[in-house]
Amino acid sequence: MRLTRINKQILLGVLFITFLGMNSYAQSKQNFIIVIDPGHGGKDSGARGVVEDEKHIVLDVSMRLGKMIENKYKDVKVIYTRKTDVFLELWERTQIANKNHANLFVSIHCNSANNKSAYGTETFVMGLSRSQETMDVAKRENSVILLEDNQEKYQKFDANDPEAVIAFDIMFSAYKDQSLSFAKLVEDEFVKIGRSSRGVKQSNFHVLRTNASPAVLVELGFISNQDEGSFLGSEYGKQKATESLFTAFEKFKKEYDRKTMPEEEEKPKEVEKPVAGKTFKIQILVSKNKYGPSAEQLKGLTGVEVVQAGDVYKYYYGNTNMASERDELLAYTIRKGFKDAFVAEFINNEKLQGNQNYRIQFLASNKKYRDRDNKFGGLKNVLRVKKGNMNLYFYGSTKTYEEAQKDLKLAQDKGFKSAFIVTFNGEKLIEESPKK
Ligand SMILES: [Zn+2]
Questions:
Q1: What is the span of the domain harbouring residue 287?
Q2: Is the pTM of this model over 0.70?
Q3: 3-class state of residue 183 by DSSP
Q4: 47 Cα to the center of ligand 1, angstroms
């Protein structure tokens, strides 16, 4: 197939985007990256062992560890700095961890000493060098380190010895806590299988760095020592050492997962429950005057309830048993211009005292109608009260406000839109305002 130059570019672009998509998919599945770094390799054999040299032992253990992790953890990506007997510069090892944004860097080594009786495991915590600058600092700080720390490793520091440089990197770890945590897990596991631990080694001084990984350098033991050298040179010893590293990894990963678990979803706000036994209304106005539903005094509010109590009319807006709605209603009426509005609290089904009762005034007329007059729209048992030269007509007689509201609704449905609730004492209108 012949492609024009443009088409080739488009094709490449599509392939590239496809690759990016696959890559991000893979990353979403594998959220933890461990870089396993078998020390030395190729022309660099590392420590000479009584059975096997360092570079072979650490490669073997590294590959075992990686496989164990891969088998159990589908969400972990294992990267090896080397999988074969090849030589790698230090910067190549760190670069592999850097560019993969490793969550953990484990450099695996074996010790040796002129003193053949030296033995035991030890784990160094370190900050993984991310830049030449950091390396330069490590070298430059060499003399200071020598003054501040007399550890064997530092005393024989050689900037050209990768192992020593990695060890020096300890000082620059921004992930010191995590590194220490993993280092301790490793040494603890070694102890559990009966190994002798020389402990976690760290430095006292600290330089901040901007990008690093939790990183450790594990010394599996002294292969210059007859016992440890034989152990680590054996199938059994390599497997046991690997299992210790694996168990330490499992614990580290578990803690990592715990910390990176998405915050528990915010609990849905508890569904607000009605305030038990109470009803809230906003009293917007008290007046000697009776205003109709469309009176300008009501400022456009609809559904305003009017209750006559004694010689005043109280105007209520809203009706809720929810505290939040009550507050909103109050704020709304104040915004509407009822500066003195306040919440009136009603106890549900509270009965009026003594002979008191609620009635619905639905009509006022100078005419005198008989009971069951067509004028009443079907309302029955209407009470007529003479007031001045007016006849006031009342419907219902109830002890609770809730019942009165039902009567009011009925009257309004019959067409008496301006009907309102009035308090009575028996069959007499209460003339005095109730004392507050
Ligand atoms: Zn080494």
A1: 278-429
A2: no
A3: helix
A4: 6
